[in-house]
Design a protein that fits this description.
alpha/beta, 26 helices, 49% helix, disordered N terminus, seven-stranded mixed beta sheet, five-stranded parallel beta sheet
Length: 611
């Protein structure tokens, strides 16, 4: 990262040259300025070409000078003299010549990426339409911006640009990694994101989107996948042959998934966790009823490991789901005799190395905190504040956010905790410094005879709040922040986790939460539910307990995940669309969830498409 002080001094020095035009040699054709090829003087034979070209620009004025500076900036990019390229291109942003500005866009993009100018990058990409880029640079602009978006895990933006790049005839020849990068990003999209790309796609885009759709619809079903792919080839003869497709596509077609004849499910079928086990059991049965490909046997996990080993062997088990309880997961996962491929329904002990074909699926709240930290990075927030209830789960999420935020290259965020309503009120006054503002207003009132009308002033350095609290605490927090922030100040975005969401909120309670954005599993959002499956669930559980709803969705996903696990082992970008979220397999065998985004708006809940 280049220091702002150094960059400013360098820009000042360059500006005196760039915009201090000296009457001298002027090209007869501004579009193709004449350039001397032998500009090096004695003692300058080792001077980089970009520096030579930069000095040559001093001989010109007006538009020809700017063309020479553009050439110097391009050479600087090629020679990796990124500071020179950055300084020249920053100054050329002020050029009065539209053609210069159009040709400068690509150089600016490359210089910003190379020098990690995150804020400038965000602004450039947000404010630049492709038509503003020189026509000869548009393909490269799309390519470099796609690489940046992909690195930032902004898969939708990367996919959109790469699909636009498909319109350019030489895109695959000019950018050999084009198809691989496109496929990597398409497979990482959520279902809703993939759907947004299907608005007026061109022929090539339609083909790629159809391939991405069939790959996720038939994952874990090799026969159906092969048939769907063969049909896709017939319908899209202009696409590359299989052997020329990205390696990830070829592997997807060749890998054989787990296809167990008999699945054993280990759950605590007796005792205090029986209701939880029942919800998972019904979820598994609901998923199995849609395929009828495996026999399922449910086994009480409240047995010794030795007893479970004997029972699984006698049942001739091919695959195991469970157990659910953490102590049982830790004990069983380390048994040498445990050779069955297993999807454990809890997190793994990271201090213990994972073994082959062991997978860990938990409704981890830490996933939500990590996802929110990444979103804040993508939105270029600089001063987020994390406020959490003072309980174990909320504090764990707060620490996970802080850790993820710092891993993204930011300083530690401000962290606050509260125990009750009075704590919360005092915390907000402290956080927004509204108490100090009110004190100043009172002090002024005491000094003047006529009372003054003054609005409360609040801090402006905070640019986002992440709240980790239950629904009741959230309903207290959100309106209190709204009335504490000055009406003339920028709107302070407030984000929350699924802990803040309840399906039982009425319209009045939803009104109090207007503007709140939060993460939630798709199953818990009425906008995304499967109506037939929802009806089936309501017949099984009349009470609609929210914790049981989540476990039902977990059981449903656990069964359906079996068919995709082997592919996800080899192709790490693949996302499985589940009821509990978009599910990706980490290299250590853990299932990582990406949840949906929703927001309260106009007294109702709406889906939000975040980057």
């Amino acid at each position: 990262m280049i220091s702002s002080k150094l960059k400013t001094l360098f820009f000042i020095g360059l500006s005196s040259l760039i915009f201090g035009c000296t009457p001298n040699v002027i090209s007869s054709d501004p579009g193709q300025p004449s350039v001397e090829t032998n500009d090096r003087q004695d003692g300058q034979s080792d001077t980089p070409l970009a520096r030579v070209q930069y000095k040559l620009a001093a001989k010109y004025q007006g538009e020809p000078q700017h063309y020479h500076l553009l050439k110097a900036a391009r050479l600087a990019i090629a020679e990796q003299d990124y500071l020179l390229a950055l300084a020249i291109s920053e100054n050329l942003k002020l050029s009065p010549y539209p053609k210069i500005q159009a040709q400068n866009k690509l150089i600016l993009l490359q210089a910003y990426i190379a020098t990690e100018q995150q804020q400038n990058l965000q602004l450039l990409l947000k404010n630049t339409e492709l038509e503003q880029v020189d026509v000869d640079d548009r393909a490269a602009f799309l390519w470099f911006s796609s690489q940046y978006f992909s690195q930032e895990q902004r898969h939708l933006a990367a996919s959109r640009n790469l699909l636009l790049l498909a319109d350019y005839a030489n895109s695959q020849a000019d950018f050999p990694q084009y198809m691989a990068l496109l496929w990597q990003n398409l497979t990482a999209l959520t279902d809703s994101q993939l759907l947004t790309l299907q608005t007026k796609p061109n022929r090539a885009s339609s083909s790629w989107l159809a391939l991405a759709d069939l790959s996720r619809r038939h994952i874990g079903q090799p026969a159906q996948l092969q048939a769907a792919y063969a049909d896709w080839q017939r319908r899209n003869p202009w696409m590359a042959k299989t052997e020329a497709m990205p390696e990830a596509v070829q592997q997807l077609l060749l890998l054989q998934p787990f296809q167990p004849r008999k699945i054993a499910v280990l759950l605590p079928l007796k005792g205090q966790f029986r209701q939880h086990a029942l919800a998972i059991q019904y979820g598994i049965l609901a998923a199995a009823s849609q395929t009828n490909t495996s026999q399922i046997v449910f086994i009480d996990s409240e047995q010794s490991p030795e007893q479970l080993l004997l029972q699984l062997t006698s049942e001739q088990t091919d695959f195991v789901i469970g157990p659910l309880l953490k102590n049982q997961v830790d004990a069983i996962s380390q048994l040498e005799q445990w050779t069955w491929p297993t999807l454990f329904l809890n997190s793994q002990d990271l201090a213990i190395p994972s073994r082959p074909n062991q997978f860990f699926f938990a409704l981890s709240m830490e996933d939500e905190a990590q996802q929110t930290a990444l979103l804040f990075q993508q939105k270029d927030y600089q001063q987020p504040v994390v406020i959490s209830a003072a309980n174990n789960i909320s504090l764990r999420m707060q620490q996970q956010f802080a850790q993820s935020w710092q891993q993204l290259g930011h300083p530690a965020p401000q962290l606050y905790q509260f125990n009750d309503k009075s704590d919360l009120e005092a915390l907000i006054n402290q956080l927004l410094e509204t108490g100090q503002s009110n004190a100043r207003v009172k002090q002024i009132d005491n000094l003047v005879s006529d009372k003054m009308h003054s609005d409360t002033h609040s801090r402006l350095d905070i640019d986002a709040i992440y709240l980790i609290a239950d629904p009741v605490q959230t309903q207290l927090f959100k309106p209190f922040v709204d009335v504490s922030v000055n009406e003339t100040a920028p709107k302070l975005p407030i984000y929350a986790s699924s802990r803040s969401h309840s399906t039982s909120l009425d319209r009045t309670e939803q009104r109090d939460l207007n503007g709140l954005t939060f993460t939630e599993m798709p199953w818990m959002l009425p906008l995304k539910t499967n109506p037939a499956l929802r009806d089936e669930y309501q017949q099984l559980f009349q009470s609609q307990d929210e914790s049981l709803q989540r476990l039902f969705a977990m059981g449903f996903d656990a069964y359906r995940l079996i068919g995709s696990l082997r592919q996800q082992q080899q192709l790490t970008s693949i996302v499985f669309p589940g009821l509990t979220g978009q599910l990706r397999l980490h290299a250590n065998g853990s299932i990582v969830r990406q949840l949906s985004w929703a927001r309260y708006h106009n007294n109702r809940l709406i889906a939000v498409q975040e980057p």
